[in-house]
Amino acid sequence: MAGTTVPITIRRVSDDRIASTIYFLRRNPRMIVGGTIVLAWVFIAVFAPWVAPFDPIKVNVTDSLIPPSPGHWLGTDDLGRDVLSRVMWGSRVSLSVGAISVSIGLLVGTSLGLAAGYLGGKFDLLIMRGIDALLAFPALILAIAITSALGPQIQNAMIAIGIVAIPAYARLTRGQVLAVRQREFIVAARTIGASPLRIVTRHIFPNVMNALIVQATLSTAFAILAEAALSFLGLGPQPPYPSWGQDIAYSQRYLPNLKWWMSVGPGIAIFTAVFAFNFLGDALRDALDPRLRRSGT
Amino acid sequence: MIQYILRRLLLMIPVALLVTIGVFALARISPVDPVLVFAGEDRDPVQLEAIRKQLGLDQPLPVQYVAWLTHAVQGDLGRSFQNHQRVTEAILERLPATAELGAAALLISVTFALGIGIISAVKRNSLVDLFATSVTLMGVSFPGFFLGVVLILLFSYVIPGVIFPPGGYVPLTTNVGENLRRLVLPAVTLATASLALNLRQVRSSLLEVFGLDYMRTARAKGLREGTIITRHALKNALIPVVTLVGIQIGAIIEGAVITETIFSWPGVGRLAVQAIPSHDYPVVQGVVLVSALSFMASTLLVDVLYAWIDPRISYSGTSA
Predict the structure, then answer these.
(1) Which of A29, A136, A264, A278 has the fewest C-beta atoms lying within 10 Å of its C-beta?
(2) Option in B18, B257, B281 nearest A141 (CB)
(3) Contact yes or no for B245/B117 (Cβ under 8 A)
(4) Contact B236/B149 with Cβ under 8 angstroms?
């Protein structure tokens, strides 16, 4: 080897990051598929006024019940409204309910879990019994009950689905807090006089982050499905505002006439959105939290 | 074991009390005055005040709660605002239809999950396995009500001859054949989501068991593959499935609300859905309470079954 020179390539840190991200994504095709569909739906929801070909609520009886055609890719409903445009605008409802209800569940559930796990004692007992009581209700039944009590509005659906999501975050966070509470770095922080708030926010919370990201992705899928179910039962946004679940419920009356396209558009929309979040959540679980990985699947 | 069951029952009491507080609160957070709903068109202030007194709504909230709970534990969940029928009676009338639908869905889900799950695990990476993993993935994301709509479209309208009717219910005692014919579509719809979860569980726990030492021993001593799977693998692999089936009783209770609505199935779920637009709170409250308590009972039953099936699990001394 003597006398040979080894060329040294100097690469910027950012290049390494890009390369490692590409390597990571290539090893996780589920993340690419799930992430792409999620991004596509987010794009459609944000830019619905520009990408939707027609006004989703404008009645045009001369164009009623047109099957899928080049003019109306997903056909029109009995009032001549373009199904594709309604599906695109409907994504705003589904995704905003998903984002807001998951935020409610995440914020409240994580705070309760952090407090219960760190403080322990009677506070923990009280909080966890409350969480057990929430878990005693089948999730959708609780969401239906809360929305029906508060009134059929999109804000109430968000609150209801958010409340239903609380237990998952609270239990997850509490479990993680209990696992790290006695670790050396927490004891060390306590010894040097760090306040409980600082210990929880600066030392414990970062350890829970990965599991929370996975849970948030998976519960967005649940939230979209739950919102669609609530809308299907008439407990979501009210007509004529487009919503996937409500549009499927409305289309049921035209099934005997074989006007299938009215329900297929919103149905496929719900499926692809929920599928994408589930897929992404599973991929994130494998990547970020190998302890939670299911064996064999 | 009896000690464990008793301890679990004792632990359930505070949770059940919190559940009743939650259910009671649901009717009270509503912006709609129940007196106005009960009175209907009659808006005479004196009459309204009399109804308020009659319903006990003039009392402080804790007093109202205790009165409601006292009646509830005696099986009296109040009367419907709409038709003044006793809520308990209304629920009991519709319970057989819901129980039939739930049982059929559970049967379909468990049978197919076991059948396909076993083949999929034994013949890993085969076509059946590919089918099973696809079903798993699709099933959890496919909204039940959309599946119901698709099935109605196909089997009631597209394929000539109305193979299965789009809805309605004929009691089992009236006509067995017609009852079963009308049961197929709602039961398949309700079973699909839980089938996906069960299938995933059967497959993954079997694959896990296949890798264990005693399976190699069983093969080494020359046992037939069928015996190895049924006598050695399944026995251990099915323990997590029992838990999952228990969890799915909750999924079936909530799924029944949607499925009964699509197929006009006169069950408990549809009773609640029909009560919502008319603000018939006693009915909604009653159904929610019964659902939560049934779910709690099924969870307890599964925990007990779990301990019974797997003798390695000991609950003595540990709190659940």
Answers:
(1) A29
(2) B257
(3) no
(4) no
Tokens of A253: 């009356």
Six token digits for residue A146:
């809360």
* Rounded Cα distance, B78 and B71, in Å: 8
The per-residue pLDDT for range A161-202, each reduced to its tens digit, is 999 999 999 999 999 888 888 888 888 998 999 988 898 888
B83 vs B290, more confident: B290
Helix ranges, A28-82 (H):
29-46, 48-51
CB distance B150–A267 less than 8 Å? yes
**Residue B15: both structure tokens together:** 């949770």
Closest-CA residue to A180 (of A210, A208, A153, A141):
A208
From CA A62, how far away is CA A5, in angstroms rounded? 80
Q: Where do we find the tokens 């085969």?
A: B126
The reported pLDDT for the residue numbered B197 is 83
User: 0.90 cut: is pTM over it?
Assistant: no
Residue B76 CA, distance from chain mean position: 23
User: Cβ distance B152 to B248 under 8 Å?
Assistant: no
With CB atoms and an 8 Å threshold, state whether B22 touches A133: yes
Q: Do B26 and A251 touch (CB under 8 A)?
A: no
